[in-house]
Specification:
Outer membrane efflux proteins (OEP); 429 residues; 2 domains; alpha+beta; 4-stranded antiparallel β-sheet
Length: 429
C-alpha cells in the first residue's frame, strides 16, 4: 500500500491523466461563457492631418468654405463600452451540452487511469517478488547441487563412483551458477520498473505468505460479470460518451443554417481637436445604442453541408467504436474470470506437486545411500522440486493479479481490493 500511495503522487502517467481531466473541466466553463453577456470597453487616441480644398462654389457658400480650406493637424480620442447578450444561438447551446459530455468522458478516463495504476503497481510489485523468489530458489538449488558435487568428488576419490557422476554434478552446478546471475539481473530490471512508478528506489518489499488463501470470484458466474461490465466498465462509459458527443456534433452542424440573434447595447464618446468649421472648433460626439442584431447565413460555399456529412460519418465511427469496446471488455472479463478459477485450480494441483516432489527427493537420497538410485536421479528429483516450487509461486501471483484484473474489467477495482491483497503480505525478517 505504501508503494501504491507513492505511485498516486509520483506516477507521471496518472498525473498526466488527472491534468487532462482538469483541462477538460474548463471546456464546460468556456462553453457556458458563449451563452452569457459579452462586455467590452474600448479606448483610442490618434494624431491626424487633413488638407481640405474646394473647387468653384456659389458665392453664398464661398465664405464659409474658405474658412475650412487648408491643412491642419489635430488629435482625436474616444472611449466606449459595448455589450451583447446572445438571444438565439442554437449552435452554442449544443456546444455547451457537448462540453458537459466531454467532462463526463474525462471522468471515465481518469477513473480508468486510477484502476490501471492499481494494476500496474500490483504487476510491478509482484514481478519483483517473483524475481526475488526465483533467486532464492536458484540459491537453494545451487547449494544442493554444490553438496551433490562435493559428494560425487569424494565418492570418486574413494572409488565408489565413476567420473561420470562428477561430470554430471559439475554440469548441473555450472548451469545453476548461470541461472543465479540471470536471476540477479532480473531483480534489478524489475526493481527499475517499480522505480519508474514511484520515482525512487523501493525499500524491502513485504513477501507473500507461504500459503495465502485465495477465494473464487463472487458471484462465481462468468456471464454475470460480463453483464456488470456492460453497466460499469469505464472503457464502455468512455466510448458511450464519445458516441453522445458525436451525436451532438451532428446536431450542432445542422444548426449552422439557423440565424444568430443577439441583443446589443453600447455607449461611445469621441472627440476631435478640430472640425470642418476650423482649427479652433473641436467636435465631440456621444452615441448610445440599443437593439437586436440578426445574422443569417445564406451561403458559405457548401461548408455547412459538408460539415454535417463529416459529423454523420464520425457518429457512425463512434457507434462502431462503442460496439468494439463492448466486445473487447466482454472478452477481457471472460479471460480474467477464467484466469482466476484456472489459477485457483492450478494452485491446488501445484501444492500437491510440491509435496510429491519433496517426497521424491527424500526417497531418491535414501535410494542413493543404499545403492538403488544414482546421483543423477537425485539431481533430477531436485530439479523437479524447484520447478514445482517456482510454478507454485508464479501461480499465486498470477491468480492474485487475475482477481484484480477481473475487478478492473467491470470498473470495480478499489483501494479496498488492494488492502485485501496487502493482508496476504508479511514483512520479511
Amino acid at each position: 500500500m505504501s508503494v501504491y500511495r507513492d505511485a498516486l503522487v509520483q506516477d507521471p502517467v496518472y498525473a498526466a491523466e488527472r491534468a487532462a481531466y482538469q483541462a477538460t473541466k474548463e471546456r464546460r466553463v468556456q462553453a457556458r461563457a458563449l451563452l452569457l453577456p459579452n462586455i467590452n470597453a474600448t479606448g483610442n487616441i490618434g494624431y491626424n492631418y487633413s488638407d481640405t480644398s474646394f473647387g468653384s462654389l456659389p458665392a453664398e457658400t464661398a465664405a464659409f468654405a474658405s474658412r475650412s480650406e487648408g491643412g491642419r493637424d489635430y488629435e482625436t480620442w474616444g472611449a466606449g463600452i459595448n455589450a451583447s447578450q446572445p438571444l438565439y444561438r442554437p449552435q452554442d447551446r449544443v456546444f455547451s451540452e457537448q462540453a458537459a459530455l466531454q467532462v463526463t468522458q474525462a471522468e471515465s478516463q481518469v477513473a480508468r487511469a486510477g484502476q490501471d495504476l492499481m494494476l500496474r503497481v500490483a504487476q510491478a510489485y509482484f514481478d519483483v517478488l517473483l524475481a526475488q523468489y526465483e533467486l532464492t530458489t536458484v540459491e537453494a538449488q545451487k547449494a544442493a547441487t554444490a553438496e551433490q558435487l562435493a559428494q560425487a568428488k569424494r565418492n570418486f576419490e574413494v572409488g565408489t563412483a565413476t567420473i561420470t557422476d562428477t561430470y554430471d554434478a559439475q554440469a548441473r552446478y555450472d548451469l545453476t551458477v548461470a541461472n543465479e546471475l540471470r536471476a540477479r539481473n532480473d531483480i534489478e530490471v524489475r526493481i527499475r520498473s517499480l522505480l519508474q512508478l514511484i520515482g525512487r528506489m523501493p525499500g524491502p518489499l513485504a513477501q507473500l505468505t507461504s500459503t495465502p488463501t485465495l477465494n473464487a470470484p463472487l458471484p462465481n458466474d462468468m456471464e454475470k460479470w460480463v453483464e456488470a461490465a456492460f453497466s460499469t466498465s469505464p472503457d464502455i462509459a468512455t466510448a458511450r460518451s464519445a458516441l453522445d458527443i458525436a451525436v451532438k456534433e451532428v446536431e450542432r452542424n445542422r444548426l449552422g443554417h439557423h440565424p444568430a440573434v443577439d441583443a446589443v447595447a453600447g455607449l461611445n464618446y469621441n472627440r476631435a481637436g478640430a472640425s470642418s468649421f476650423g482649427d479652433s472648433v473641436s467636435q465631440s460626439t456621444n452615441t448610445a445604442t440599443v437593439g437586436v442584431q440578426v445574422a443569417v447565413p445564406l451561403y458559405q460555399g457548401g461548408a455547412i453541408s459538408s460539415r454535417v456529412r463529416e459529423a454523420i460519418a464520425n457518429r457512425t465511427r463512434a457507434e462502431q467504436d462503442l460496439e468494439n469496446t463492448r466486445r473487447t471488455v466482454a472478452q477481457t472479463t471472460r479471460q480474467a474470470f477464467l484466469a482466476v478459477n484456472t489459477g485457483l485450480s492450478e494452485i491446488n494441483a501445484l501444492l500437491q506437486a510440491v509435496a510429491s516432489n519433496q517426497l521424491s527427493v527424500e526417497a531418491s537420497k535414501l535410494g542413493q545411500e543404499v545403492g538403488v538410485r544414482t546421483q543423477v536421479d537425485v539431481l533430477n528429483a531436485q530439479d523437479l522440486l524447484y520447478q514445482a516450487q517456482r510454478n507454485l509461486a508464479r501461480a499465486y501471483y498470477v491468480a492474485i493479479l487475475s482477481q484484480l484484473r477481473l475487478k478492473a474489467s467491470v470498473g470495480r477495482l478499489t483501494e479496498a481490493d488492494l488492502e485485501n491483497v496487502n493482508r496476504l503480505l508479511v514483512q520479511s525478517k
